[in-house]
Amino acid sequence: MSDIRNELKYVSSHEWIRDEGDGTVTIGITDHAQDLLGDVVFVELPEEGSEVGAGDDAGVVESVKAASDIYAPVSGEVVAVNEQLEESPELVNSDPYGDGWFFRLKLSDASELDDLLDAAAYGELCEDEE
Amino acid sequence: MAKKTALYDLHQSMGAKMVDFGGWDMPINYGSQIEEHNKVRQASGMFDVSHMTIVDVTGADAADYLRRLLANDVARLTVKGKAMYSGMLNDNGHVIDDLIVYLMSEPHVSGEWFRVVVNCATRDKDLRWMAEQAARFDVALTERPELAMVAVQGPEAIALTKTVLSEFRQRLIDGLDVFQGCESEGWFIARTGYTGEDGLEIMVPDDEVVAFWQALADAGVSPCGLGARDTLRLEAGMNLYGSDMDETVTPLQSAMGWTIAWEPETRQFIGREALEAQKAAGVPDKLVGLVLEQRGILRGHQKVIVEGLGEGEITSGSFSPTLNISIALARVPAGTGAEAMVDMRGKQVPVKVVRPPFVRHGKKVFS
């Protein structure tokens, strides 16, 4: 059974979103997603300072098995990216909700957070996939 | 319902993640494919390959039959237990499957006994084809579904395997050449593999394999899934049937020219005429290795662009855990030189064209 954190929000494309409470959110991929991908070997992240819209491609995560797009779950400006992933992409597998985070966005429309899935809804979605 | 090997319950209890593989429920990994891969390069790992199809070929015409059926020539097996890699071709010279054939009996006696190991995904069509071709020969084809198969691979594989076997079997293993096997009370122990490392492939009766696997695990051999098996064979430059070759190409287009025994000219193996015609007309493409020297991962079916010559396609691509870069096998136009481009998700990226293997015995081997 994969790990789903109650304090996070989710989207159906398996990104998680943590509201930092200061107008920014942190984004990564879920434990379920890293498990499906297998060993992550390479992560391409958006450029700091770039603008992304909700649902836009914001990067790529490549595992031994497949390449998978990362989508921006909400719109905003990229204010930080996890540079550690360049040297240690395996953090996505070992700590998907912690050191394996991908990037941080400054929200352009905080109301978009209301459209995200909560842990229960995301859990159901994962079960349906299995 | 997916088929299960005799080791299924043990895999589950060891934490394997199971996936469907040619109709079989098989371990893809036990946690991390890359860690398993590295174990095999640096120490030892074991794979359940019981899904593979084992067929014994016996009878007065066994050798004649196989000399017709296979592009390689079993008459070259002159030592008991010796193994040979071959393609099994159709009349168009296209590859029905690739396989290993072992000479089980003494050589050149009447009524030799051979053992053929073919792929699991191709089992039905292989058996049908083999039976059809057998009609004109005095041979019996006997599938051996009661035999499980475990591949123990890596620099420490043979030494660790010996620690769990009888003294008699230890001595048998000491006597094995590379690419040679021997029978022992229903077991068949062969110094073969699909990883580019030294090691053994061991056929064991289903009712003995659980104890054997457990003993190997206790001796320190790491269980490995078919995910690691795939990256290991790719680094070793070994073809995977269904990806790198199939019934649309010949061995000449698949870096398998060395497996065609052209001599003696009088041997009329299936596909010979088509291969000779293709050779005379010029083989249009070839299977090569690609190396990506920048970040990113080459994947199967990505387009390869060779300036002035046209296009090709990646047949297998992945991350190489040993080299820490991406490598691939690709079918490209015959005249392709040392450089090409790959269309990776809309971007054209330069790659080096090399001759596989990429890795042997844990070390980089291409330049």
UniProtKB/TrEMBL annotation, chain A:
Keyword flag Zinc: no
Gene3D superfamilies (UniProt xref): 2.40.50.100
Cofactor(s) required for function per UniProt: (R)-lipoate
Cellular compartments per GO CC: cytosol; glycine cleavage complex
Keyword terms: Lipoyl
Domain annotation Lipoyl-binding: ranges: 24-106
Subunit structure: The glycine cleavage system is composed of four proteins: P, T, L and H.
Its biological purpose: The glycine cleavage system catalyzes the degradation of glycine. The H protein shuttles the methylamine group of glycine from the P protein to the T protein.
NCBIfam families documented for this protein: gcvH (TIGR00527), PRK01202.1 (NF002270)
Annotated protein name in UniProt: Glycine cleavage system H protein
